[in-house]
Design brief:
6 strands, alpha+beta, six-stranded mixed beta sheet
Length: 227
């Protein structure tokens, strides 16, 4: 009787093992792919349109002879220090056209000057102007802030000057005093979208003649004038 009972228990245990572990293995069920979350834009970048315009663009401050796609304050610093060759920013056929209008407050105003600089002369003058801008900024960062804008690099400014739309970038430094010099450096994009420095405008701080001076300079900007 005991032998029969033990045989019965053994047969039931064996049946249970076959039920739990027997049969062909079941294929793994596919797991639904979860959508990847989109990166959240940095709040500081989203709040500053100029940071958005510069994001991912070449600044000319990377590898040697890197093209410039956006103008930056660090670019002016690099030119002044000679860490970026000024010649790389100048189209040899265009050179740089500079207009200076600093009449002063005397009875005999200083005459306005307008000239085109080419080749080595243009490169040396550009470094000289950049050095002047940076020196004033280092002396008084608040009064002589350097501010670069790329607002109209991709889309032309319809009111660059009267009856002329233009794509450009600019770096400016205002003079806080009445007869203090204010600088604006203008870059035009070439056919490949790379910025070339084409003009320098120097006027008095708060001058009512700025629009007139820019209109005069704009006639020369982007015009071939160097051999």
């Amino acid at each position: 009787m005991m032998r029969t009972m033990l045989a019965f228990v053994a047969s039931m245990a064996l049946a249970g093992c076959k039920k739990e572990g027997g049969g062909a293995p079941q294929p793994a069920q596919p797991v639904d792919a979860q959508p990847q979350p989109r990166p959240v834009p940095d709040a500081a970048v989203a709040a500053d349109p100029e940071k958005v315009r510069r994001a991912g663009k070449k600044t000319g401050l990377g590898a040697a002879h890197e093209p410039v796609e956006v103008a930056t304050e660090d670019l002016i610093q690099a030119i002044s220090e000679g860490n970026l060759k000024a010649a790389d920013l100048i189209d040899p056929a265009l050179g740089i056209h500079e207009l200076i209008d600093l009449p002063g407050g005397g009875d005999r105003p200083e005459p306005k000057t307008s000239k085109r600089l080419c080749g080595k002369q243009a490169a040396e003058h550009l470094q000289k102007v950049a050095t002047q801008i940076v020196a004033r900024h280092e002396r008084d960062p608040d009064a002589y802030e350097i501010d670069c804008s790329n607002e109209f690099v991709a889309t032309a400014d319809p009111a660059f000057v009267k009856d002329r739309a233009q794509r450009y970038a600019s770096c400016s430094q205002s003079g806080p005093a009445e007869y203090d010099a204010s600088y604006v450096v203008y870059f035009f994009p070439d056919a490949g979208g790379h910025l070339k420095l084409v003009g320098i405008l120097v006027t008095e701080g708060g001058s009512a003649l700025f629009d007139e001076d820019l209109a005069s300079l704009a006639v020369e900007l982007g015009k071939p004038g160097c051999k």
